[in-house]
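Marked as duplicate of an earlier ticket. Keeping the data here for the record.
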Amino acid sequence: MSSQDSAKDRTAIVIRSLVRLLSTILLSFLGLAFVLMLFIIVLQKLRSFRDWARQFNKRTLNPAILSFAGHPLHPYAVVHHKGRRSGQTYATPVNVRPTPEGFIIPLYYGSNVDWCRNELAETIQPHHYLAIAFATT
């Protein structure tokens, strides 16, 4: 009986050690994730980082998203707008959310983005920039 008790004690010690190890790893991971989240929040508050991210998205991600934006199964639509100074026509992918009255376009970078400024400069009607071209097929 003593050999069975010592085997159970050893098993309990091994289990406790594994639980401690796993909890330490989990807490370390959660702490690192929290610090990383705080770092990202601070970076997003810095205007220069936000502007860099906006330019990166504009030059790199937007051309890729334009290839499938406007299709019914994707949350992206295309806003066609004319440049304020150049007069050139642009197509910009935007994330849209349907509502009973139409669509809402979240302004992740604020209203100082090119497409929004172009649309607001073109017309006085603030709802005009919600006009979006969707593919019907």
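See parent ticket for discussion. The two ends are 76 Å apart (CA to CA).
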